[in-house]
Amino acid sequence: MFLCREKELQKLNKRYFGDEFECIVIYGRRRVGKTALINEFCKDKKNIYFSALDTTPQENLKILSKSIYSCKNPSGSHAPKFESFDDAFAEITTMSEQERIVFVIDEYPYLAKAEKSISSRLQHLIDHVWSSHNIYLILCGSSMSFMEYQVLGYESPLYGRRTAQFKIEPLTYKETAAFNTQLDVEQNSIIYGITGGIPHYINKLHVQKNLDEAVLENIFDRTSYLFEEPENLLKQELREPAVYNSIITAIAEGASRLNEIATKTGLETGPCTKYLKVLADLGIVQKETPITEKIGKKSIYMLVDNLFRFWYRFVPQNIVAINSGRITSCYENVVKKNLSDYMGLVFEKMCKDYLIYYADNLPVSLRAVGQWWGTDAVTRKQVQIDIVGTPIEGTEYIIGSCKFRNESIGVDELELLKKYAQVFGKGSKYYFYIFSKGGFTEGLRELEQKGEVRLLTLEDIYR
Questions:
Q1: Are 246 and 219 contained in the same domain?
Q2: How high is the pLDDT of residue 220?
Q3: What is the pLDDT of residue 76?
Q4: Residue 401 φ/ψ, nearest 5 degrees
Q5: For labelling, which of 105, 179, 328, 409 has a CA lying 20 to 30 Å from the CA of 12?
Q6: What is the predicted pLDDT for the residue at 304?
Q7: Is residue 1 part of a domain?
Q8: CATH code, domain with 262
Q9: Rounded Cα distance, 107 and 240, in Å
Q10: How many CB atoms lie within 10 A of CB 385?
C-alpha cells in the first residue's frame, strides 16, 4: 500500500504530462521511501529502471543493459550487453523518439563511484541530445552529501541541468499514524518515537493489534530486522563503524557538547568534528543551537534518528535479558517505566511540527520553531524553553512547553513560561502554548478562556 507521498507523486506526474525533457533529482536518507515513491510513479509508465550497485563499471553496464531490454521486450529472456554506456544511452535516445521514456538511475552515487566520467557524459547528453527528446530522467541517491555536492552542487558537471529536485524527508507524526489507523494517538506517538517516521521501519515494526508485543518481537529479539538495523546501517555506510558506534553511544549516554563527546570517545576534537559531520549527513545526528543565536559554543549534538535513539537508550542496558530470552519482564519494568522520559524529546518535535504544518490561525507568522537554552541575565540561572517560535518580522513570539506525562498540567507551568520569556528582554509580545499528554487543571483551563494561554492535548494535535 502506498501512503503519504501524494504531493510528491502529484508533482512528478504533472511534469511527466508536460511532454518536455525532465531531469529530476530525488534524494534522502536510506529507508525513507524514495524507491517506493519512484515505483509508484513508474508503475503505469514506460520506464527503464536501473538500480546501480557498488561494483565494477562492467557489472553496472550489464545491469543497465538488462533494464533497457526488459523495457523493450518485457517477455524476452535474452539481454545482450551493450559495449559501452554511450551505446546504452544511445539506445535510450532512440527509444524516446517513439514515446515518452522514464529513465531511472537509482543509487546514482554507486554508478558515479564506479564510472568516474558518468556525470560528465550525462551532462553532454542533456545539453546536446536529450534536452530535445521525450526523456524523463530521474537520478536518485541515498548518500546525502554526494547528492547535494556532486549532483546538485555548483562544481558538479550536472549543475543547472536538473529541472526539479525532491528531498524526501521522514514522515511527520501525523503521517506516521496513517500506517496504523486502528491504534490510539498515544500508541501512534510511541510508534513515531521508535521509527521517526521512516516508512521502512514502520513496516518492519509490524504493529497489528498489540504495540508491546510488536516491540518485543521486532526490536528486542536478536533475530529481528530492527535489532540488527543500527549496526548494519553503520557497517553499510561507514568505513570505521566502531568509531561511529562509540560516538553515538556517548551522545545517547548524555554527552552533547563537542568536548564532552571527544573526551568520552578518546578522540581529538578535530577528527571528532569530522565524524559528527558524517553522522549528520546520514540523518543520525544533528547539531543544534538556541534558536535566536548563531552557531557557537552553545551548540550541542543530538541523536535525531529515533530508531537509533530508542535502540541505544534501551537495548544495550537490557542485552543480558535479550540474550537470555528474559526480556519480557525487563521490558515491563525498565523500558515501559522510562518510556515517558524517552518520549519527551519526541513530543517536543511533534509539537514543533504541529505548529509548522498543522496549526490553524496562529497569532504569529513563523519564521522558525526551535528550542532555546542559556543563562538568565538577571537570575544567573540556566533556562531551557521547549518551544520558541520566531516571527518573520516584528517582535511577537510563541513560547511553548511540552509534557508527555500522565498528570494534569497546572497554572504553575504557565507562570514558569512567563518567567522564562523574560530572557528575551522587554518590548516583545508573547503567546503561550502548553502541550500535555495528561491534560490540564481547571485553573489553567480558566486562564485559557481568558486568552492567556493556548492548551493542546495529544488528541488535539492529531485532529
A1: yes
A2: 97
A3: 66
A4: -130, 145
A5: 179
A6: 95
A7: no
A8: 1.10.10.10
A9: 22
A10: 22
8 Å CB contact between 384 and 376: no
In this structure, what C-alpha cell is assigned to residue 285? Answer: 545526528
How far is it, in rounded angstroms, from Cα 301 to Cα 309? 13
**CA 92 to centroid of chain Cα atoms:** 34
Are 261 and 378 found together in one domain?
no
Q: What is the pLDDT of residue 292?
A: 84
Do 393 and 338 sit in the same domain of this protein? no
Mean pLDDT per 10-residue interval, the chain, length 463 residues: 90 94 96 95 96 96 95 78 96 95 97 96 97 96 91 94 96 97 97 97 95 97 96 92 96 95 96 95 93 84 96 95 93 94 97 97 95 86 94 94 96 96 86 98 98 98 96
The whole-angstrom separation of Cα 332 and Cα 307 is 19
121, 138, 167 — which closes off a domain?
A: 167
Q: Are residues 297 and 210 in the same domain?
A: yes
With cell 541505544, the residue in question is 312
Cα Rg, the chain, nearest whole Å: 25
Q: In what order do the strands lie in the sheet with 382-391?
A: 366-375, 382-391, 396-403, 429-436, 454-457
Query: Strand 285-288 vs strand 300-303: parallel, antiparallel, or unpaired?
Result: antiparallel
What residue numbers bound the domain in which 410 lies? 344-462
Tell whether 92 is covered by a domain: yes
Q: Residue 354 is part of a domain; what is its CATH number? A: 3.40.1350.10
132 is a domain residue: yes
User: Is residue 338 domain-shared with residue 358, that is, in the same domain?
Assistant: no
Domains of the chain: total: 3
Question: Does one domain contain both 356 and 328?
Answer: no
- CATH code for position 138: 3.40.50.300
